[in-house]
């Protein structure tokens, strides 16, 4: 297996066509087809399914291409720095459930690089996509939570995907709401008191199992539920409908504003927020810096 073969496979995946990939690589279609077949034979993995409309990547091929892209990118960085003597852009990508403090940590990371050249990415998305982004190398780190209910199912999925979960913070559960909500000034709120208000839940798309819910107590029989897919909509619904959601209680007024509050929920439930990495992967310097920023929020949890 050669670096050239990996680049060929990446080109075919990007073009969804062997003919188009051959044109971009300036080689003949038979030569490219032969190289791909040789790679599949050597690895024992069917990378592509051929159809009349082109080619599609197989599930096994997706995983292989994740590794191939990483190898190709690392080689490009080495070549740029040590052969071409270029200043290489710093790169980092993180995927997360909808946590303001995780976005704030990303903001603080970016601020440290000032005028340096960089290419960073932050994906605030659904639970399964957080997991899949780390599995396929789209992101170096994934931020999500485990609790007593989802731990066994998600841990099993992590093992199957070759991922490791590392604990960052353990939090009790809070009710996040608009300060104008009639319950906002109470020292503690029960689920019974919340019954007349709509519970806001992040839509999980096709992976809508209770185990992938971003909110704890996902199996609770709520009288009113509104699903949405972004944080800004949640904030609007909190003001317009006195809606609420369940969260870690870690607030970032700099990003969400000062019109919202977190009230302790009358529950013994806890959530463990942590990060996912590929099993055995060594974190990049940028990944370590990002986790240092996340770690600063541990003090806020301990003070409560």
Question: How do you describe this structure in short?
Answer:
The protein is an alpha/beta fold and 304 residues long.
Describe this structure in words.
By secondary structure, the protein is of the alpha/beta class. Helices cover 42% and strands 23% of the residues. The chain is built from 12 helices and 12 strands. It has helices at residues 3-15, 18-25, 29-43, 59-83, 100-111, 127-135, 151-160, 191-194, 231-241, 253-256, 285-295, 298-303, and strands at residues 48-51, 54-57, 90-96, 118-124, 141-146, 163-172, 174-178, 199-202, 225-228, 244-247, 260-264, 270-278. The strands form 4 sheets. A 5-stranded mixed sheet has the order 4-3-5-12-6, sandwiched between helices. It has a 3-stranded antiparallel sheet with strand order 10-7-11. The protein has a two-stranded antiparallel sheet with strand order 1-2. Strand 3, helix 5 and strand 4 (118-124) form a beta-alpha-beta unit. Helix 1 (3-15) crosses helix 2 (18-25), helix 2 (18-25) packs across helix 3 and helix 5 packs across helix 11. It is elongated and about 70 Å long.
Instruction: Let me know the number of strands.
Output: 12
Structure annotation, total helices: 12
Distance between the termini: 54 Å
Strand portion, in percent?
A: 15-25%
What would the average pLDDT be, to the nearest integer? 89
Question: Would you identify the regions where 5 or more consecutive residues have pLDDT less than 50?
Answer: none
Strand order of the largest sheet: 4-3-5-12-6
What string, H for helix and E for strand, traces the elements in order? HHHEEHEHEHEHEEHEEHEHEEHH
Largest sheet: 5 strands, mixed
Question: Based on helices, strands and strand pairing, what is the structural class?
Answer: alpha/beta
Q: Which word captures the global form? A: elongated
Helix content: 40-55%
Rg, please? 23 Å
């Amino acid at each position: 297996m050669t670096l050239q073969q990996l680049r060929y496979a990446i080109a075919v995946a990007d073009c969804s066509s062997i003919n188009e990939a051959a044109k971009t690589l300036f080689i003949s279609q038979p030569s490219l087809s032969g190289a791909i077949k040789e790679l599949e034979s050597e690895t024992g993995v069917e990378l592509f399914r051929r159809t009349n409309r082109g080619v599609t990547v197989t599930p096994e091929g997706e995983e292989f291409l994740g590794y191939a892209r990483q190898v190709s990118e690392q080689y490009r960085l080495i070549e740029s720095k040590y052969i071409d003597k270029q200043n290489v852009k710093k790169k980092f990508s993180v995927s997360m459930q909808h946590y303001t403090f995780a976005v704030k940590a990303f903001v603080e990371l970016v601020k440290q690089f000032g005028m340096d050249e960089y290419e960073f990415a932050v994906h605030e998305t659904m639970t399964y996509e957080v997991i899949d982004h780390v599995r396929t190398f789209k992101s170096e780190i994934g931020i999500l939570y485990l609790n007593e209910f989802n731990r066994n199912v998600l841990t099993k999925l992590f093992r199957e995907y070759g991922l490791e979960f590392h604990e960052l913070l353990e939090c009790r559960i809070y009710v996040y709401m608009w300060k104008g909500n009639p319950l906002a000034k109470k020292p503690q709120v029960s689920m019974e008191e919340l019954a007349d208000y709509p519970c806001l839940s992040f839509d999980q798309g096709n992976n809508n199992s209770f185990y992938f819910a971003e909110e704890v107590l996902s199996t609770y029989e709520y009288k009113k539920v509104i699903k949405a897919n972004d944080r800004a909509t949640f904030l609007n619904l909190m003001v317009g409908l006195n809606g609420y959601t369940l969260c870690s209680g870690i607030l970032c007024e700099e990003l969400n504003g000062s019109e919202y509050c977190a009230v302790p929920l009358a529950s013994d439930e806890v959530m463990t927020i942590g990060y996912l990495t590929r099993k055995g992967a060594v974190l990049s310097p940028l990944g370590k810096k990002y986790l240092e920023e996340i770690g600063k929020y541990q003090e806020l949890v301990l003070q409560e």
